[in-house]
Fold each of these.
Amino acid sequence: MRVATLSSFDASVAQLQRRQQDLSTAQERLTSGKRVLRASDDPAAAGTAERALAAESRAVSRQRALEASRNAMLLAEDALGEAGELMQQVREQIVAAGNGSYTDAERQLAAASLRSLRDDLLAVANRQDGSGRFIFGGQGSGGLPLVDAPGGVIYAATAGQMQAATGEATALSVDGRAAFLQAPDPANPGASISLFDVIDQVATALETPNQTAAQIATAVSTGIGQVDIVADNLSSWRAETGHALNRIDAVEDRLAQSKLDAQRERSGAEDLDMLSAISDFQNQQTGYDAALKTYSIVQRMSLFDYVK
Amino acid sequence: MSGSTLMMLGIKAMAANYAALQTTGHNIANANVEGYSRQRAELSTAAGQYTGAGFFGKGVDVTTVTRAHDQFLTREASSARSLASMDATRLALLQRMENIFQPGVNGLGHAATQLMDAMSDLSSHPADPATRRVVLARATDLAARFSEAGSALDLTQANATADLRVMVTEVNALARSIAQTNQKIAEVVGRGQPANDLLDERDRLISQLSDKVQVTRMDASDGTTAVFMAGGQRLVLGSTATELSVVQDATDPRRAAVALREGPLTRVLSETEMGGGGITGLLRFQNQDLVAGRNLIGQLAAAIGGAVNTQQMRGVNLQPPLGSVPSSALFGIGAPEALANTANARDGAGNLMASIQLTVTDPAALQASDYDLREDPAVPGTWRLTRLSDGWATTVADGDVVDGVQIDFVGAPQAGDKFLLQPVARAANTMSVLLGNPLDLAAASPLVASTSPANVGTASVASLTITAGPLPVPGATVQVTFTSDAGDYSWQMLDAANNVLASGNDSWVAGQAIPPAGTDINGFSLMLHGVPRNGDVVTIAPTPASALSSNNGNALALTALRDAAIAGGHTATDQWALALSDVGVRVQSGATASEISTAVSRQAELLRSADAGVNLDEEAARLIQFQQSYQAAAKVLQVAQSIFDSLLSTAAR
């Protein structure tokens, strides 16, 4: 077959251009470290990488939500622990006030210290986290969740627990009503006892002058029994937050794992295998070099060189 | 026989070889001219002169100059070039469109993910103004990315239309040049010799024309060539050329179409009528790829925007007075459009007799497609809706809902009317954020569910989902009281003064919602953990105004949208990944098609030029060959002269 000079030049130039283009694509991939720079490089891998990116991003945002939950549960555990200690002091105070040798004045002093412990407990129940959220605010509260009202302490927030967006059951708050105001009464199913009412009642009984020893003994023993019930309720809520913290640790592991999986999946889908890429690049380099050499040799040959 | 005979012989041989040398020189001179056909001086032996001693040769004659030309190979190269040019044009445009579908952190998908992440942060800190502002910023970013993508697609369309105008102008100029060349050829063809260079010129023009649009040619006996488009429309006949023009598409005025001027009329040409060439590639991109790209982006915009808006309107914002300002939509989304064909029936005043009104009823059901609506030819009087992305068709009547869109007829459509329905094509273009105040974000739920402290069962609230915004009976409290250990319950809806507004009974099964799917009490769906016992009570009450600022119920629901099937049966992320793959596959297959057709075209051109092109080595050899012949002929002349000189010197004595 004849070869037209023009088309043989054109074909060689086109071939050189193609090799140069391949070389520049390979270089672009090597410098970016990515195999998939555009969707058309590998449509299926681009889709996978996109899903993995979203999964990674979701895991990170869930980790942030989880930290908020952890923070809330740590503070709640601290607060419930503190409340437990205060209840211990309340109990000791009541036991002491039951001493038959106490005068009215001594009982009044005991009542006063009970009331001060009660105020400490109320402050603990209304504690906030760093961002102004009430730890015992339930499903939302505008101001203090537990407030003094004429009939005793009432729950001004919405009962229940707020959840964090971690994809699992992780709480952002503790139900202050259940923890402080509604300890289930074992003797009376369906009924409940308020921590503050118990202290109020004992304090009021101790403040009342001229009582018989029997009256005081009854008030004290009833009070101690009820204090034990509400203290148990506090420690069961404390255990609950401890469980929640354990669960948060487990969720954190799962989130870290799914973040890692997502990163690995994304990298597998779109990242370049450097070893084979470098070897491909060298292949292409050799090819381009050979093409240039043959071009310069073949195209230099002409019969005109020999016609003298 | 005389001495002058030998001289004549030498002169003729010299002339013939000189002509051959001249032709070779012409070949060498034109070696790099594209489309030039190698020429050749055709020599023939002059008829001999009869004498008593037999025939004596009278040398050589130049009969004509021919060009190496194979009609089949030329035609083949032209049509291969047409297809290559079509594929290359489409690929270039597709690659431009692919830039709008960026993968990774620069893409639309990631912007949507970031909005959802911000919603998650909002659910952790519902009262924090900074977090609320971040949500608005992310939403603004997402809307801007969508509207930028819409504008970029508009720009691609505008560029395509401009390119089309340029190409059509070139086609018209080429057709005119072919007609003029036809005329010149016809003028010289009468002289009996082929006008090689003019023929080359015409072949070259036709080949350039093939770049733009596929043509077939038919040679006439007068030397002219008629050029037809692939669909048989006449482009050039003799010395007259027909004009093409760019017009608005009859179904979608934003698109361009190519029309042929036939006398006083213009007729719009379809893609198939043009067969190949850059114009066809461009129209194919415009009518298929760009439409698909637009709908993919639009579907996502309408679906994400619609889902976020619906959920936002179900929640409670923090605008004062708390709890009494209705929440409004976060995103503004481009409205669906129904375009009437320009040929649709009009009344006396020139107004359309009928139009179509589209309303999105379910953003999650929207499909990434345009729809064609026209009378069903099989059943006159009924209207057939065809989904253009996959050809699925159904019969619709006024008010029907298809793929999340309600179709209303305004006026009575006439027989022969056609409409192009675009539910999502323009959704991204005008996407915007409508809320400016962080307090407008509805992070709080309008209802909260709580179990009674007196409950004896283990049931607790797993989730409370709001299914209507605003609630059917705002401010009402619903009390669910279990009436057996088997999950039977009765419910009462109470107003603020504890009057019973409604009541009913149902049964709860573990893992199912209260009320059961498909029924409604007051726009909520409650899920329980654990097991309720007889007498247990769950109360679903309005969230108190004081609790709204720290409640995160609706922020959680907004966050949950990232895992919900909100876009055509997929999550937004999956739908975006699908869109990305769809465009990727289009570019990839476009590149493969272009690679193949370019290789075919190169091969065809190689074959054509192998026959018709100039090989310089060959010409060098011919140069030596004819030079030697010329020198030999000169020698003959010298001999003839020296014979004559001998004769003269003999006679001079």
Amino acid sequence: MSTATATRRTGGEADADAPAPRRKLTPLRLLLHGFLIAVSLIWLFPIAWAVLTSLRSYEYTAANGYVSFGGWTFDNYVTAWRTAEFGQHFLNSVYITVPAVLLTLFLASCVAFVIARFSWKLNLILLGVFTAANLLPQQALLIPLFRLYTEVPLPEFMSDSELLYDSYWGLILINVAFQCGFCVFVLSNYMKALPRDLYEAAMVDGASVWRQYWQVTMPLCRPALAALATLEVTWIYNEFFWATVLMRTGDKFPVTSSLNNLRGQFFTDNNLVSAGSVLVAIPTLVIFFMLQRHFVRGLTLGASKG
Amino acid sequence: MSDLPLIQADRAVPPPATPTTGGRRRRLRLLSRTDRVVITLMVLVPLLLVTAFVWLPAAATVVLSGTDWDGIGPLNEIDFVGARNYSDVVNIYPPFVPAVQNNLLWLAVLFLVATPFGMFLAVLLDKELRGSRFYQTALYLPVVLSLALIGFVWQLLYSRDQGLINAVFGSSIDWYGDSNVNIWAVMVASGWRHVGYIMLLYLAGLKGVDPSLREAAAVDGASESRTFFRVVFPVLRPINVIVLVVTVIESLRAFDLVWVVNKGRNGLELISALVTQNVVGEASRIGFGSALATIMLVVSLVFITIYLATVMRENRQ
């Protein structure tokens, strides 16, 4: 029942405005719409402005000012892509984000399964340890972690820095460790809501714990996993701090942290800055518009009652 | 990443009613040895990872804050200096007081302006208006952007020579550079994102309120605002606590935005930026930076505890 209810709920939420019964437009309601439209437009404006600026040539805006109309071009994107080596940085983001998300979901689902499947007293502590870890300020861990990263050697085929510092491995590990807590919490709640008879039946059939996890629980958790995957991809892609402090080589920075290095190169040209910003935003915006339902559901997973 | 999600019990479904049969002892006997090894591994591997990369460093930060380690010398030459680092932080470190002020200001603005505004929008959007989907999308679009990127997007409005604000108003203020105004400029950008985020969390909470409560209030002739403040708001207590804690922790963790603007200097001091400057900057003062980090850790742990207590209580119900 659980999954069905949960899915139907989000489905209903997604098209909430479609079947809404026609109400009379009272002046008060009109005012409400006016207010909401105004706020929405103000909220969209900075993004729209970035897109607009990115499509205009620097010469035109320098001559006519930004409050003008014309000078349309696509060159900023070409220049920004080339000077900032976005291709390489996007690839770096992929190298870090994809393994980190998969590993986070796998490890978190293992812990969550044990917490949900068995009712041991330690489970509550375990849940607390994981959840709290996700909420700590990153800077509070920075000093020992920085030192640790510069001490732990890696073989050369894993990283040319031969250290955990300045390697993709290091970034993947810290992202996984940090993000696990949130996923453990969401998944364990989700799994607790699954009917327990499933396990009774599986045990009668002689299924091992691993098979109960992999073949009974995990397939039922697909909606939660999809929501978490969407969210975690966005977060790890957007992650700025760890890459800023635990990376050194400019070529190896993921996109979000490479922004900081762009400052100097783009400093005098706002049109280039905006083209670069739009390029960086595109992956998250695509994910957001394609998987909006999962995104919203991930953030609010379980917040809606009955 | 700088998001604090709404972590809450999945109340879409009632908790399993079936009591666990047998209890712990019988259950353990039902498990084969392989099962026990598998379970141990399933817990131990992630636990080791989190312990090694999060909890041990956190503990080490607290220990280091009591030492004079310079970050280079061998660990056995560390001397404990008691609370000296803390007194140094407070007494002879000029950026500390502005940083605390800025963090508090950040919290005040998010808490008094952005959070209530987000909640207000959620209440409006909960009315099942036509076009509600458009409004929601517009409002939480900024939430998918990283704060670092938001710093760049707002630069297009704030820049002194090329920014829109100065172009429209004919002013020549360097919004990111002038130490009198830059903290406000940065907070507007951060609030822009925070509003959508809180709206999203609160809207989800509102959707979970039992409709019969509102109907009952309507039958009793309560006005809409009265219904909200007297009936709905108290029912949403857990969400209110979570939104409060989210706001506090977000303002404590604020970092990305000021770091891309000017690495947290010249009016944009924040504790998180000071810690980072002391570690990766030219002067690495480990004990000193650790003392700053420990302050952050203690404040956050207080609120994390409140958060966990709320969330777990919800969970058990």
